[in-house]
Amino acid sequence: MPNGQDQAATVPLPSSSVKPVTATAAGTVVANGQTHHQRQHHLWLVTGPAGSGKTTVAEHLATALQLPYIEGDLYHPKANIDKMSAGIPLTDSDRWDWLTELRKQSNSRIHDGAEGVVVACSALKLKYRDVIRVAAYWDRTLVIHFIFLYAPAELILERVAARKGHYMGANMVKSQFDILERPREDEVDVITVDASGDVEDVKEDALEKVRALLAAEG
């Protein structure tokens, strides 16, 4: 502070007739005692273990909702890809920068004018999902939803074993289920979708639940 003075003492206090502007909820701002509704932006994160169908479902949602799509795997640093290719599970520290980058990329799309974004991202642990949730603290118009795809480990293993040319091998499935924290009841921003059925049914079930949620939000 200049000359050791308390800057707060030099700043005039607002008149009692001027009410502050405060954000009370996503998309809602109170200014001068009146509530103003801002346009909301939705961030849809399709989550789950490798082989659960994240990319397939996320691409379907992005097309149907006419929103930009972000493939989370493309933003892993090379060191992460090298580890997974070698069958070495990622640690929490390996994932922080990746999750932060996905959050940054999502915000960037919205700031560029998109009404929302669809992201495919495993988000296996509660704290990983919380890293993404931070985005809503900085943008009160942002509404975040996780679409959790779940299927038995045996079925996921079969699917991953059948894939060709992907760095996530079948040997990594167990490590993902070992750390998987299924969404808790108090994670009210999560939609759970049974991913064990036919792929077309899973896609339509996810889209139906998303549209129902949008309709309920008005």
From TrEMBL:
Q: Which GO BP terms apply?
A: carbohydrate metabolic process
Q: Does the entry feature the keyword Kinase, yes or no?
A: yes
Q: Which Pfam families match?
A: AAA_33
Report the InterPro entries cross-referenced here.
P-loop_NTPase, Therm_gnt_kin
Name any one GO molecular function: gluconokinase activity
Q: Which UniProt keywords apply?
A: ATP-binding, Kinase, Nucleotide-binding, Transferase
Q: Which GO terms describe its cellular component?
A: cytoplasm
- Supply the EC number(s): 2.7.1.12
* Broad enzyme group: transferase
Protein name (Swiss-Prot/TrEMBL) = Gluconokinase
From which organism does this entry originate? Pochonia chlamydosporia 170
